[in-house]
Write a structure and sequence with these properties.
The chain is built from 15 helices and 11 strands. By secondary structure, it is of the alpha/beta class. The strands form 2 sheets. Strands 3, 4, 5, 6, 7, 8, 9, 10 and 11 form a 9-stranded parallel sheet that branches. A two-stranded antiparallel ribbon has the order 1-2. The model has no long low-confidence stretch (mean pLDDT 95).
Length: 332
C-alpha cells in the first residue's frame, strides 16, 4: 500500500489523531510499539494562517516519527489551502490530512469537521483546494454520514478521490452517534469494494483487540487500520496486534508491573516535552485508562489522578507495581 511516495508494509496500523492525546510523548510510545503512521493533533486552519503559537506547537514533529501526517480542519477552502501551504513549508509532513469527521459540537455546528457531512459540495471544494495548493499527498478522514438517515459515504469517497485525495480514512459511525454504539464496518467494506475506488481505504472504529484488527483486514478488505481510543493508556496495543497479524500468536497480557514500566517511560517522555508539572497532569488520562478496572484500586486511583509532583507520581507508580505487579488486566 502506498500514499503518494510513502510505502507501507502489509497490515499497516495507524495511530489516530486525537485532540489532547496525540502529542509527542504519546506518538513516541505508539511508534515504539510499531505504529506505521503517526498524526498530529488536529489544527484549525485559521489558527495556522494566523500563526497562533499554541497551534503551531502542535505540529512540530521529529525525524524519528516519520512517516508523519499533519491533520488540519476548517470550513473555508481558501483558508484551508493557505494553511496547507504553511504546514508543508514549515513542518514538512509526509502527508497532510483533512478532518471531515470530528463530531464535537463546537467544531461540527460551525460547519467544520463532521459538520461538512451536511454540505458535501463544500467538503469536496475544500479537498480540491488543498490538493491543488500543495505537492504533499493529501488524505482525508470522515464518517459514514450525518445520521442513520443520511449516510452517503460511498458517494463521498468517490468524489474525494476524483479531486485528488490520495487515501481516505472512514470512522464507522455517523456524526449523530458521536462515539456511542458500535462502529458499522459494512459501509467501510462497501467503499473499499466499490470498483470505482482506487485509493487506499483506512478503517477506523472499535479496533481494540488483535482479532478485531484481523477481521477488519480479512472481512472488509481495508488497506490499513486506524486505532484511536483503545491506544489511550495502552500504546502497546500496536505491538500486540502486529504480532498477531504477522504470526497468529496472541501475546500474553502485560502484568501490572510491565504496564507500570511502560507508563513510567511514557511519563518521562511527557515531562521531557512538557515540563514536570504539565507533563504529570497530562498523564492523568493515561493513568485512568491503564489501571481502569483494577481491583481494590479506588483510593490509589484518586491519589494518582490528583498528583502534580513528578517524584511523588513516580513513587506511587512504583508502589502500584509492587502491590499489584503480578496481576494481569485485559485492557488490550
Amino acid at each position: 500500500m502506498k500514499i503518494g511516495s510513502v510505502e507501507f508494509d502489509k497490515y499497516p496500523l495507524f495511530a489516530a489523531p486525537m485532540e489532547d492525546v496525540s502529542e509527542p510523548s504519546f506518538r513516541y510510545m505508539c511508534k515504539k510499539h510499531g505504529a506505521d503512521l503517526l498524526y498530529s493533533e488536529f489544527a484549525a486552519s485559521d489558527a495556522i494562517v494566523r500563526s497562533i503559537n499554541q497551534t503551531m506547537r502542535k505540529l512540530k514533529n521529529f525525524e524519528y516519527e516519520r512517516p508523519f501526517a499533519v491533520q488540519i480542519f476548517g470550513k473555508v477552502p481558501e483558508v484551508m489551502a493557505e494553511a496547507a501551504k504553511i504546514v508543508e513549508a514549515q513542518f514538512k509532513p509526509d502527508i497532510i490530512d483533512i478532518n471531515f469527521g470530528c463530531p464535537v459540537k463546537k467544531i461540527a455546528v460551525k460547519g467544520a469537521g463532521a459538520g461538512l457531512l451536511r454540505n458535501i459540495p463544500l467538503m469536496v471544494d475544500i479537498a480540491r483546494s488543498v490538493v491543488n495548493a500543495v505537492s504533499t499527498p493529501v488524505t482525508a478522514k470522515t464518517r459514514l454520514g450525518w445520521d442513520s438517515n443520511d449516510m452517503p459515504i460511498v458517494s463521498i469517497a468517490e468524489q474525494l478521490q476524483d479531486v485528488g485525495i490520495q487515501a481516505l480514512t472512514i470512522h464507522g459511525r455517523t456524526r449523530a452517534q458521536m462515539y456511542t454504539g458500535e462502529a458499522d464496518w459494512t459501509l467501510i467494506g462497501e467503499v473499499k469494494n466499490n470498483p470505482r475506488m482506487k485509493i487506499p481505504i483506512i478503517g477506523n472504529g472499535d479496533i481494540d483487540s488483535p482479532e478485531k484488527a484481523k477481521q477488519a483486514f480479512d472481512k472488509y478488505g481495508v488497506d490499513a487500520v486506524m486505532i484511536g481510543r483503545a491506544s489511550i493508556g495502552a500504546p502497546w496495543i500496536f505491538s500486540r496486534i502486529k504480532q498477531y497479524l504477522k504470526t497468529g500468536e496472541i501475546l500474553p497480557e502485560l502484568t501490572i508491573k510491565e504496564q507500570v514500566a511502560e507508563i513510567q517511560e511514557y511519563l518521562d517522555k511527557s515531562v521531557e516535552f512538557m515540563g514536570p508539572t504539565i507533563g504529570v497532569i497530562h498523564m492523568r488520562r493515561q493513568f485512568a485508562r491503564t489501571f481502569k478496572g483494577l481491583e481494590n484500586f479506588r483510593e490509589t486511583r484518586i491519589k494518582l489522578l490528583n498528583l502534580t509532583d513528578l517524584q511523588e507520581t513516580k513513587d506511587l507508580l512504583s508502589e502500584i507495581a509492587e502491590k499489584w505487579g503480578s496481576e494481569k488486566m485485559h485492557n488490550v
